[in-house]
Amino acid sequence: xxxxxxxxxxxxxxxxxxxxxxxxxxxxxxxxxxxxxxxxxxxxxxxxxxxxxxxxxxxxxxxxxxxxxxxxxxxxxxxxxxxxxxxxxxxxxxxxxxxxxxxxxxxxxxxxxxxxxxxxxxxxxxxxxxxxxxxxxxxxxxxxxxxxxxxxxxxxxxxxxxxxxxxxxxxxxxxxxxxxxxxxxxxxxxxxxxxxxxxxxxxxxxxxxxxxxxxxxxxxxxxxxxxxxxxxxxxxxxxxxxxxxxxxxxxxxxxxxxxxxxxxxxxxxxxxxxxxxxxxxxxxxxxxxxxxxxxxxxxxxxxxxxxxxxxxxxxxxxxxxxx
Length: 323
Prior knowledge:
One of its GO terms (molecular function) is hexosyltransferase activity. This is Glycosyltransferase 2-like domain-containing protein. Residues 7-132 form the Glycosyltransferase 2-like domain. The chain folds into 2 domains: 4-212, Spore Coat Polysaccharide Biosynthesis Protein SpsA, Chain A; 217-318, no CATH class. Strand 1, helix 1 and strand 2 form a beta-alpha-beta unit. The chain is of the alpha/beta class. The protein has helices at residues 16-27, 47-57, 71-82, 101-112, 152-155, 166-172, 183-193, 226-240, 248-266, 271-284, 299-309, 313-319; strands at residues 6-12, 34-40, 62-66, 87-90, 96-97, 116-125, 130-134, 143-144, 162-165, 198-210.
């Protein structure tokens, strides 16, 4: 077996419908020196049987780890600890990656001697049958840092569109929280603080499947309020590092995006949740309406934000296409 340079970590829970496409995209990489670690997080469907078949067919490349349910974050942590590769890449089990993902990202990481490579996401909406490329252009191949590109804090919080040096997690002790929502936000932003050099690739290498029944599309769950804990966790981390003032506007806009523009529209119809989210924003970021990044929002999202600020939820429901 060739020396493993990269470990692809796939947490698996209740995604048997999409699992083969996901794993096949990992198997078919043009890069050679890598392993696939699939972590079965006590999935109740037939996912484990599918994983066992891949382990049988690809014993030199594919490893299956089964564990008691720890949630997405806990499954990723298991993969990090078990990984052999110098670099790790996270792939959710209902998504897939381009066949050149490892080749392009590993080459960039080695050439630039960096700790992280960021690439764009192709967002595939299975309900609307549409695709949107999510990117925050930073200049192809540019070496970045949080100081050079502070908008990283609100533009690319996903854990999946990145190749990381494994040692960043091990050396800092920063891992994903278990059994919570918004684990990416709670973790990736802390990793940014501890990563000195980042390379950006202007290529949509990760395909994110938007599913109407996914956890993060659950409208009325009180767990939507966990965004408050997530924002507080990041806020307090920056305060503890004495860099809160330096990145205050970026953290504030991150909260605007996740709480006002995402969580509140998801909870329309539950006044208790929408009120608590509004109250938190006014308490934590009392002057958020003057944030400099709001002007860069698309017109439709600026209107959406204005309606939310004025609690005109009925109109918001109409323009959002909800009944």
